[in-house]
Amino acid sequence: MALHHPQSFQQPPPPQAQSAHSYESSSVSSNASPSRNTSMQGGGMSSRTGGGPAPLHPHHISIPPAPTPGSSSYAQSYGSRSVSPKSGLGGLHDSMAPNGLGGGKHGLPPTQLSAGGLQAQKRAYRQRRKDPSCDACRERKVKCDATDTASCSECSSRNVKCQFTKETNRRMSSINLTGARQVQDLEKQLAQARQQINHLRSLMKDGAMEVDSEAAHQSLNLPEVGSNSRRRQRPPVAQDLSRVRANLRNYSQGIFKPPPPYHRLGVPPSFSPVLPDLPPREVADHLLRQYYSSIHTVIPILHWPNFQHEYEAVYKVGSLQGVPPVWGSLFFSVLAVGVLYSVDPSINRPHDGKKYIETSRMLTDLWNDEFTIDHARSALLTSIFLTELNLKSAAWVWLGSSINISHNIGLHCETGPWPVVEGEMRRRVWWGIYVWDRLLAIELGRPLRIDDDDCDVGLPCPVEDHFIYDTGVLVPSGSPPTSNLLITSIHVVRLMAPLLRTLKAPAIAPPTLKTFESHFAACMASFPPSCQIGSDQYLDPRYLSPVFYLQKARLVLHRHNLSTACAPDVRTAAVDHCVSAARDTVQLLSRAMQAPPESSYERSSPGQAHASNRWETKLGAIASTMLCTHLWRCTLFLCFRGYYSEALACASASAAIGDLRPVNISCGRNLSFFLRALVEKLRRGEGSNLDKDEEMMAYVSGDLQGSTENSWIWNGSETGMTPNNTEQAASPKSERQESRTGGSVSPSTVPTHEEASDWGGWEQIVWLLQALQHEHQGQSAYGAPPGQSASAQPLSQSSSRISIANII
Fold it and tell me: Polar residues bias: where (predicted)?
């Protein structure tokens, strides 16, 4: 029989492929090697040092039959062990004679003796290690059948070079061969990885890496702007199954429920909470107007005509008698959010909002097992309220409740048929929760709760809700264009899922960044003309929130490459892109800070008074926590690169917001520290090398250091109770404790009253940025800082201009 080796004696592959094959085959046990089946007997192989017959064809190696006692092969197997390599054929005959296997009449024929003697001589020669095994066979402890003209079958099967290195043999015989094989495999793998990394870096540096934009778009799974979610195929109904449905509803009780919304609502458990008093009508009207002009503009989860009708009926009765408790919970959560967006000095903000949200919670039945859409609305508004109070962990929990309720009542699936208003509001509530899930996840660096593959709901109707009736959608001719921003917000936040997946990588490659930028531009094109970058039209401040969602996504994407895992040039490019997003933000913000034209269309709810045209008032009325943090991030990067004029615009907007949002105070305190650190670097003449300053790079990265996956400064830091004990020791307990209505928080999340006032306020930051702007432009000295007289203003002795040294 013949053993075929189709890979034997092939041309060796290129070095890279050879290394890869070597790594893959190194993990295979030597017992499974094909060379184990190749017989070393017979005259098919010659010694590397001696002569002999020519080798057989490499693909057809003959295997003689198994030896039997008394045969020549049997004698060779045992008799040749005593043969000296110097004895030659004579020694062979002498050693065989005592056993009766030598010459004479009982010996072998001359031809067989000659062939057998040659085989025995070669075997004895190799067994005495005069011709050592190759490096690979010696390492794997297998027999080596190499000749002076061909590689051994072991090296041929593994596609490695068959070589003989005495130093290697001596070294391998002195250490553990198994451990040595593992070390060599790891070295090969490491060398291959380094070669690939260097190759990719050279391609990136030379700009030779070009990826097809459509292929990259598909690999990132970016959704098309304006597209609906993928609809699932529903099984067809072959006949009337009403009888089957009735039987299942009856006999499935206690086992499973029909899917929502096809199951009958059960009898809710007895829940009779103490009904709270309604707030004064004028206060409620004011808070509803604030809610309508802020949250309802971006996330319209209420059908306003129906909600107002129910609101009028409740105040006509004068109490919540006759309405479900869940409607009262929804009503007080609307009032709580309206408190946060009110700029009326008569509103005790945020204390009144906390009382309202607590009332909303008291009207929620914890034992309820039959949820409605109002439960989902109330939980969502509670999450929004807690976010604006900077209680983001609590907001994250309430968001989860809202999503779970939505899944429980089937908002994530397209069902029906529904009345027009109810079907539209189911879609709007679902997409409102979807938008908030994306916004809060990107803000906190958390995983998404909603999977796009689980979403089977069409996009909401892009018209005002007071045009939607059960008879249909009726838009009067000549009506002004809609300003419903839910659709544009959906298109922006749908890219958060691939963005968060991309942020899991240590660094983001330039082709991926380019693909995202193209998608950002497509999303930006879906906004109204006044929202476009480069437009000179007045921008309604109500559009700032959704358009800033997009700019924040750009900044978060590029900020990821600030990590120490990236090369210096990659980090520098990341700062440049973040500054570009910040400057685009300023361009939009500056147009919203202009005086509106008289002909601008102002949408208002019925009975709403005309709002003030001052941009400060409008900005304060729509400013959210996410808008405040975005302005803070932009200011950090603009100051880092020396764009003090643009940074001054962001700081002026933050100053207009003031203490309307608790997070804005914390942002101002952090920015004050950052500016003092920056001025100190400038004073030392280190302003031109900030990209290589690890301290300043950590400061400018901002809340990137709040991410468990992407931060780097906490590596090796203290954990557990150690930082908590240190914080408690540094701050008295009485300073940290607050009442429940005052917002009890952990020591590390919110500064104390003394810490919140030790940075000088936004006026100090505005003055410092103005001074840096004048110093950068080489202008004359700027006025004294707030709280300091002009005579006490520090001036340089050699110049009338204020200097960096005196600014600090």
Answer: 711-731, 740-751
Token look-up 């890279």 returns 16
8 A C-beta contact, residue 611 and residue 293:
yes
Residues 608-642: pLDDT tens digits? 444 445 777 778 778 899 999 999 999 999 999 99
Question: Reduced to 3 states, what is the DSSP secondary structure of residue 110?
Answer: helix
- DSSP class of 222: P
Helix 615-622 and helix 644-657: axis angle, to 10°? 70
pTM for the whole structure: 0.68
User: Helices in 409-508 by DSSP H: which ranges?
Assistant: 420-444, 486-493, 496-502
- Span 93-136, pLDDT tens digits: 343 443 433 444 444 444 444 444 444 444 444 444 456 788 88
Residue with more model confidence, 472 or 302: 302
Six token digits for residue 13? 């592959």
Query: Comparing C-alpha atoms, which of 295, 285, 283, 289 is closest to residue 622?
Result: 295
Q: Which two tokens stand for residue 162?
A: 């068959």
Q: What is the pLDDT of residues 516-552, one digit of tens each?
A: 999 999 888 888 888 899 899 998 888 888 899 999 9
Question: Comparing C-alpha atoms, which of 188, 211, 209 is closest to residue 200?
Answer: 209
C-beta separation of 748 from 723 below 8 A: yes
Helix (H) or strand (E) holding 472: strand 472-473
Distance CA 150, CA 5 (A): 14
CA distance readout (Å), 659 to 170, 480, 497, 622? 77, 35, 33, 14
- DSSP notation for 229-259: PPPPPPPPP-S--HHHHHHHHHHTTTT-PPP
pLDDT category, 305, cuts 50, 70, 90? very high
Cα gap 321→341, rounded to integer Å:
29
Q: Are 402 and 380 in contact, with CB atoms under 8 Å apart?
A: yes
Mapping DSSP to helix (H, G, I), strand (E, B) and coil, where does residue 643 land?
A: coil
Residue 502 in contact with residue 557, Cβ under 8 Å? yes
Interior CA angle at 137 toward 136 and 142, to 5°?
Answer: 150
Residues 6+ apart with CB under 8 A from 600: 538, 540
Inter-residue contact 633 to 663 (CB < 8 Å):
no
Q: Give one DSSP letter per residue of 515-579, joined into a string.
A: HHHHHHHHHHHTS-GGGSTT--S---GGGHHHHHHHHHHHHHHHHGGGSTTS-HHHHHHHHHHHH
Separation of alpha carbons 185 and 139, rounded Å = 12
